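Researcher: I'm preparing a figure for a lab meeting and need a structural model of a single chain. I don't have an experimental structure, so a prediction will have to do for now. The sequence is pasted below. Please return the structure as C-alpha cells so I can convert it later.
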Amino acid sequence: MPQKNIDFGKYGARGLKGSEAVARKLDELAGGITTPVTARRGLMARLHYLTRTAHARRAARDAGLAVTDRTLKAWLDGGRRPSKANLDRIEQAYRSVRRQNVARHLLRRLNASGGTRVEIHPLNQSQVPRPLQRVVEYRTMNVRRWDRIVAAWAAGDYQGLDDAWTDTIVDLGSQWGQYEYVTNVGFAA
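Model: Understood. Here is the structure written out cell by cell.
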C-alpha cells in the first residue's frame, strides 16, 4: 500500500494503530465488569459470568479457561485463590466471551441509520523536529458497514481488524495513510 508506515515513530511521532484505537473503543462500548480481576468482587463477578449457563461455560473453555469443575467450585466458594496465570486466563476468557455476547447488538447499533460518525484524531507530532512535521488534520467520516470490523474484534483477530480498518479509512481519499496511526478514534453507538 502506498502510504503504509514502515518505521513509525522514527522521528518522535507518538500514537497507536487506528485499529487498536477502534478495538479499545469497542471494548468501552461493550461495557462489562470494571472491578479488577485481582479484587475478590471482580473475580467473583467474572466467574459467575463465565459459569452462569452451560453455554457460558463452553464459551469460557473455548476461550482458554480449561480448569476442572472442582477447581472452579473451590474458587467460587473462596476455598482457593487462582494463581496469577489463572487470573490472566479468567480475564482473557471474560473479555472474549463478553465480546461474543455483545457483538451482534453492537453491530446493529453501529450500522443503524446508515452508519456511525467516526472522529479520527491525528498522531501526536509534538516530539518531531519542526522541519520533519507534516500537517495532519482532525478528520470525521461516516462508516456505513461495521460487519468486518466488529466480526474481527469479537473473534480477537487483530490482523483481520487492522485489515478491515485500513479498508475503511481508504475512504478518506489520498490522505488515508496519514491516519494509519492516531492518538484516538472516537464514535458512539
